[in-house]
Amino acid sequence: MSELEGKKLDLSQDLSDLEFLRLTKFQGFIYKLIHFFKGIPNGIKKLFIALGKLIGRALTAVKNEFADIFTTFVNGDFKTKLSYLVMGFGSIARGQILRGILFLLFEVVFVVYMITAGFHWLGKFRTLGDTGSSMQYDPILDTYVRVAGDDSFKILLYGLLTIIFIICFVYTWRLNVKQNKIAEEILKSGKKLKSGKDDLQSLVDDEFHKTLLALPLTGIMVFTVFPIIFMIFVAFTNYDGAHDGYANLFTWVGLNNFNSLFNINTGTDNMSVAFGEILSWTLMWAFFATFTNYFLGMFVAIMINKKGIKFKKMWRGILVLTSAVPQFVSLLYISKMFATNGLVNGLLLDWGIIDNISQYIRFWETKNLARIMVIIINIWIGIPYLMLIATGILMNIPADLYESAAIDGANTFQQYTKITLPYMLFVTGPYLLTSFIGNINNFNVIFLLTGGGPKNPALLTSAGSAGDTDLLITWLFNITTGAESKYYMASVIGIMIFAVIASLSLIVYNLIPSTRNEEDYS
To answer: Cβ distance 177 to 69 under 8 Å?
Structure first.
């Protein structure tokens, strides 16, 4: 026995590459697990160091921007100096009429908006409204009529839009200053400035990518980014059914909503317990829903693609047809089939498997059984799609790899683990990630099958009740559509869903083979 083999290894200490290779698979797993947890403090330290450096670079960039603004004003000519007050003046004075008019028009629109509406919304933004609607007597109609007051929802909406507009104006003003500095430098070097015609030509030539991206980027900002920002701000208010912002104003409550979600107490309104229970089930559901479909879909594709299997197109067609039926129809039908008084229990009674009604299997009324059922039914939904994806990938794996492996004595399982699975994981890694995220937010399957049930009294909170199969997304739906409509709590949960998904996505994306070792599959 060599000295290395005879020496007892301490898995808590750092091992050399040779020592690590001599470990068994179990020892290697334990070694990695120990060092993963040992590396957490150092990882946190590195995170704070990186965060500090990022803040330092940001502060340096801000300082440089202010310094450049100051030096540009001091060293610039009167055209540049006047442009600090009248945007576009320098461009117009130097012959760049189109640029100057656009800068000037933007400033005029901004000033008019701020005077007519912007300052009003900003003034109300601090309190989200001071005067609610009231009932006042109308002598002409001889009755009491509702007189409109402040609208908290509009104040929050237009206040945010005003803040964003101000940020855009500051950015445009800074761009105007830069344009003046660049124009001065070009003229001093003896070169000619671009005309309006040249600017328009560049939009379909060297700057064409900006022209193409302008519309989709605007759509993303309007329909994706701004709603997210609005949702984040709602989380810091008491916006709900009782405070709709019109009849009853809502206002800022700071971090109270987050405290309610994470505060562990012994009362009946324990949001933290409900959130923890639903989050753990959501992650469990997403894991099984993703990987059962993935591996079983791959297995079905492998079986259909095997040599000697007849009617391949027919088997694929049958599976595809199952996904052609709308989920709204198929899932509701299955839900009724497995109901306590449904078709399945009726058949079990007719066949003598159960003796009477009291022995009915309560598929949707038992916690563990309901969870198992939704996972199994989701397999039926997901396998056809995975089968199609896997079929295309399997056909592109070089056949000589399997032939070489067979010559070397590899059995079917070894060929699968060393050739098929690594190749599949490399190609479908991003799909696995998006599928996992999609299952976290898989509203249809849970809502149409169980409605989130069976209800769990331990998860009853002021934001509404929750069931044992509720995901975060269905719980969020219940919170916003209940009698009290706790929009603020739904926003808090939405932020937490985003945090969980973003964290998992970043971690998994950096671990999947698709982003590493690309040369192994080229």
So the answer is: yes
Q: Note the CATH number of domain 267-521.
A: 1.10.3720.10
Question: 306 or 121, which is more confident?
Answer: 121
CA distance 95 to 76: 17
Separation of alpha carbons 273 and 83, rounded Å: 58
Residue 24 above 50 pLDDT?
yes
Which ranges of 306-411 would DSSP assign to H, the alpha helix?
A: 312-324, 327-337, 343-350, 367-394, 399-407
Q: From 176, 189, 127, 171, select the one nearest 152 (Cα to Cα).
A: 127
CA 352/CA 358 separation, integer angstroms:
13
Residue 467 three-state SS? strand
**Distance (Å, rounded) from C-alpha 83 to C-alpha 104?**
10
The pLDDT of 417-445, averaged and rounded, is 88
- Mean pLDDT score across all residues of the chain: 85
> 368, 365, 361, 332: which is closest to 345 by C-alpha?
361
Q: How far apart (Å, rounded) are the C-alpha atoms in residues 511 and 519?
A: 16
Beta strands in 150-287 (DSSP E): none
* pLDDT for the residue 398: 85
Backbone dihedral angles phi then psi of residue 405, each to the nearest 5 degrees: -65, -40
Say if residues 492 and 235 touch (Cβ distance below 8 Å): yes
Among residues of the chain, what percentage have pLDDT more than 90? 39
SS3 13: coil
Residue 6 confidence class, pLDDT cut points 50, 70, 90:
very low
Mean pLDDT in residue range 279-308: 90
Residue type, 229: I
Helices (H), 395-486: 399-407, 412-415, 421-440, 443-449, 472-481
Return all residues near 450 (Cβ < 8 A) that are at least 6 apart.
335, 364, 370, 374, 467, 469
Tally Cβ neighbours within 10 Å of residue 335. 20
How would you classify residue 432: left for phi > 0, otherwise alpha for psi between -120 and 50, otherwise beta? alpha
Which residues are CB-neighbours of 465 under 8 A, at least 6 positions away? 455, 456, 459, 478
The residues with which 143 forms a beta bridge, in sequence order, are 138
Q: Residue 195: is its pLDDT beyond 90?
A: no
How far apart, in whole angstroms, are the C-alpha atoms of residue 115 and residue 107? 12
**In the predicted model, is pLDDT for residue 51 greater than 90?**
no
Mean pLDDT of 127-133: 83
Measured from the Cβ of residue 511, the count of other Cβ atoms closer than 10 Å reads: 12
